[in-house]
Amino acid sequence: MRIVSGKFKGRRITAPKNLPVRPTTDLSKEALFNILNHQFSFHELKILDLFAGTGNISYEFASRGAEPITSVDTDFGCVNFIKKTAQEFEMDITAIKSDVYKFLERSKVKYDIIFADPPYHFSQEQFDKIYELIFENELLQEDGLLIIEHSSQTKMEHLEHFSNSRKYGGSIFSFFEYEQVENDEDDDDDFDEEDYNNEEE
Hints:
With 201 residues, the protein is α/β, with parallel strands linked by helices. The chain has a single domain, classed as Vaccinia Virus protein VP39 (Rossmann fold). Helix 4 packs parallel to helix 5. It starts with 25 loop residues before the first helix and ends with a helix.
């Protein structure tokens, strides 16, 4: 995997081949962070990375100055690899081995951005449960953002705080946020598909 921007731009990280992961592609990852750049200044953002796998997304946030970052995965090998990589790059990442649902049930910390990349074969109910635990336990800051990566087989737009979604190849990013007071009409343009495409051109 390659870090696409920030302090460690261009650095390659090679994960063990035996890890049970499906990393977010570089193309999708770059597109996602282009969107986030319009909405956030990453410096000192508190990040939660769920189903973190190799830590691919965590490293991107760390490279851009976000801290602290909490990476949660149920696989011992993944957690160890994230710990090793974070130490090597001196990134403020805490890797936790835990079932994601149990972690969300007991967590009391509020985050600025929560990113979740569950296995694509998870049921609709399993995807919905991630959303429910985060908003029921108020784990997102009032101006924060929840991003769930999923395939086209999973639908997320029926959930209350759904904001928008973007499709890149076989991956979809669904965005969730609390309703904001409309004191700046331009804020709604951050996730406009046409504007984004024009910028890329």
